[in-house]
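On clarity, I found the account of how folds are encoded harder to follow than it need be. An entry of this sort, consisting of the sequence and the corresponding backbone structure tokens, reads as follows:
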Amino acid sequence: MEDYKQRRQREAAQTEQAILKAAMQLCRRKAFDKVSALLAKGFSSLDGYVKQALAGHESLPPEQRLAIILTSYAGFMEGLGWELAARYYQQRLGSCAASTLDPQRFTLNAICQCLDEAGRAVSGKWTSYYDEDGGTPTSATYELFYDAEGYLVKSVSSEDGEERITWTGGNPTEVWWGTIDGQDVIDKASYGTVPNKTNLDLNWFCVLKTEGWAFASGDADNIFPLIGLTGKRSAYMAETVTGYKFAGYSDGDSYEYVYQTDADGLLTKITQKRHSSYVEQPYKSFETVITYTE
């Protein structure tokens, strides 16, 4: 028979679920900041969900604990439907207000315990599933290394080996990611005057897209750089990104970027033009529009 304490915990969880649903309904009609108090209360059920998922795994290495946190976080949000999460991170992109992340929350503290003293990711693990293999997972682990100034300068992956990043003027300009017939394989990037100042690091996430750059942070999705967990970001947005090219070898692609910004210098549009060895003329390969909320 359910005792009083268990019943109260179950009722509290149901109440917090109702708060989250109410917050989602209000978000549709009011500005995000008008319902932030409701979210602060409602997200405690998320913290409870993550805490339960971590229970019994406290002694695992940091990268494994972080994987549990992020997987359970995603599972919780998927259970609610992604609308609330989308609205929450839309607000994070448009506002630097520290109040949108309560430092007392369990989930935030658990993530921070998986990072180094400077709050940076130092290791990770990615897993991919391929339909042609019947859904068989492929995984790799990696380590990340930083210089004295706080820039990510090296990653070492169990799958792809070592990559080394060169920074010039506060921007990543070259990534070495191996050799072919004794020749260094190096992807490059050049920069203009458009500052990289949105909350999320769109330079690494949207712009540095050649194979060498994609895996330079440990995994091709670049989630840790996106949310600011891999040290200092680039000062500016890249204007050109070029894959390796030398006698007899080439990855065949390079990219050119054009940006639009608002009056505050925040990005509002990113347009990519792709130059491919398989197509005579360069062509526009994607365009991303960015909006901000008050």
